[in-house]
Amino acid sequence: MGIITDILKDIPLSAVLRERLADQEKKMLALETENLALKNENSDLKALVENLRQEIQQTKDIQKEKSHGILLEEIEENILLSIRKAATLDQVAQTQQISSDIAKMHLRKLFDHGLATTRQGADRKLYWHIKEPGTKYLIEHKRITQQGVPVDG
Q1: Residue 124: left (phi > 0), alpha (psi -120 to 50), or beta?
Q2: pTM higher than 0.70, yes or no?
Q3: Are the beta carbons of 105 and 139 closer than 8 angstroms?
Q4: pLDDT for 19-32, tens place per residue?
Q5: CB neighbour list of residue 76: distance below 8 Å, 6 or more residues apart
Q6: Largest Cα–Cα separation, the chain
Q7: Buried b (16+ CB within 10 A) or exposed e, 121-145
Q8: DSSP letter assigned to residue 126
Q9: How many helices (H) and strands (E) in the chain?
Q10: Radius of gyration from C-alpha coordinates of the chain
């Protein structure tokens, strides 16, 4: 009778174990489904990150191009034109009909960009001169021709 009792004892336990096993299989299936969904989402996110990296690099490239290309205000272009033949700060201010302080600010910007420089004249005055990059700028922006003739307009 010991074997039968043992078998009878195992029957309810086996039913419970089978039920637990079925629950675990359901959970396993749910986890596998969730894992697959996460893998797909991960793949989508990787593609998105790569696209964003490319956009960032393109933006950096555009900013780099823009930083190399200087864009001057119209008055600064006019000042560059006026210092093609050496001019003092006061002459620039008078030609442009602006104050000496404003002229100095614009000349400083041109100097900082390497488009203009200063030299002391024989009369000991400081004269502003256009540099080669300044001339190239005026040609590229169609303010003067290749021959150095000012373009009307």
Answers
A1: left
A2: no
A3: no
A4: 888 888 899 999 99
A5: 106, 109, 110
A6: 131
A7: eeeeeebbebbeebbebbeeeebbe
A8: E
A9: 5, 2
A10: 39
